[in-house]
């Protein structure tokens, strides 16, 4: 190829990151960049196999000309190349919450469609996740407080949908905290959204049983991971990392987990992250058989599961990422007012902005007030759960 067909958005990728839909313009041959005769998108896996057989270690990929479903985030030009996820217009808190509500609705609708299609025997297409995943990542980077507040308002009936979305969001948030790249965040998000897909084949009476499961019922529930294996192997363009997140979130470091009993180094970083996030979100959600725990109580359980089940250092990193009093959680202040942690971004963990709505002292709802703990003499006494106070915080989110 004489004359370049490249745009300014070309990156060098190792072969293990190559995916369908990427637009190859050059390959690395004997440590030299060599333009390909027929640049274009990869349409078939045979092309990737052929490149590997020719001992190609790296390729140059044009992001702008690659498919939106290939896993690359496209860049825009504005005073140089910038990542659109790293910049945003200024929005008010109300506007951020409106965006978060809209995103949560879109994500629920997507997962509901995916579950219905799968149950009816249609193969999944990862490309359908692209728009929602991009917005989810942008939200995790720029408007994380707004989404956490909206996501904290959960319903028992929609647990499976909301749990899948929250796991995806928490994985992206945790991954961003660990400074993982955008492509990895996308794979984590897709894996999170699909991580409980096998439960569509579990009997609802067992899945939503309000009492403790019998040993036989628990073994039956565990089959959802076997169902997931069969579903995911027929999913178009699903990366190994996304598949790992789906299939490893019930594994344990000591090898006693399922479905494969993986142990120690057999569980990669993203698999270990999935285990932590799945347990945390399940503990902090209300279910038909239990009330939601406060994040602080959930953190104690996570710590108790180290190092046999969960990665010790990653659990503590997750706690640092989420914060002792996460946005959307309930706290009791030293003046005996109860409120929702409303804003925490760019603040230390003990001084968020709290939206107060209830007086524990007088046992009644009060006029809503915003308390900035950086500018107030009151402080957080402890985290609380709605059930322990017998209150309904949902109108105040």
Describe the 3D structure.
This protein has helices at 45-53, 93-119, 130-142, 144-152, 159-177, 182-194, 204-207, 215-221, 223-232, 240-248, 269-283, 295-304, 312-322, 386-389; strands spanning 10-14, 23-29, 32-41, 58-62, 76-77, 81-82, 330-333, 337-343, 353-359, 364-372, 380-384. It has a 5-stranded antiparallel β-sheet. Strands 1-4-2-3 form a 4-stranded antiparallel β-sheet, with no helix packed on it. The radius of gyration is 23 Å and the shape is globular. The model is unreliable at 1-7 and 75-89 (pLDDT under 50). Helix 3 packs across helix 4 (144-152), helix 3 (130-142) crosses helix 6 (182-194) and helix 5 (159-177) crosses helix 11 (269-283). It is α+β, with helices and mostly antiparallel strands. It contains 14 helices and 11 strands. The chain is 40% helix and 16% strand. A hairpin with a 3-residue loop joins strand 5 (76-77) and strand 6.
Topology:
Blueprint: E1 10-14, E2 23-29, E3 32-41, H1 45-53, E4 58-62, E5 76-77, E6 81-82, H2 93-119, H3 130-142, H4 144-152, H5 159-177, H6 182-194, H7 204-207, H8 215-221, H9 223-232, H10 240-248, H11 269-283, H12 295-304, H13 312-322, E7 330-333, E8 337-343, E9 353-359, E10 364-372, E11 380-384, H14 386-389
Antiparallel strand pairs: 1-4, 2-3, 2-4, 5-6, 7-8, 7-11, 8-9, 9-10
* Multimeric status of the protein: single chain
List low-pLDDT spans.
1-7, 75-89
Main sheet makeup: 5 strands, antiparallel
Query: Which structural class do you get from the secondary structure elements?
Result: alpha+beta
The strands making up the biggest β-sheet line up spatially as 10-9-8-7-11
**Count of extended strands:** 11
Q: Shape from CA axes?
A: globular
Task: Provide the gyration radius in Å.
Answer: 23 Å
Number of continuous helical runs = 14
Mean pLDDT across all amino acids: 86
How much of the sequence lies in strands comes to: 15-25%
Order of helices and strands: EEEHEEEHHHHHHHHHHHHEEEEEH
Helicity, in percent? Answer: 40-55%
The N- and C-terminal alpha carbons lie at a distance of: 58 Å
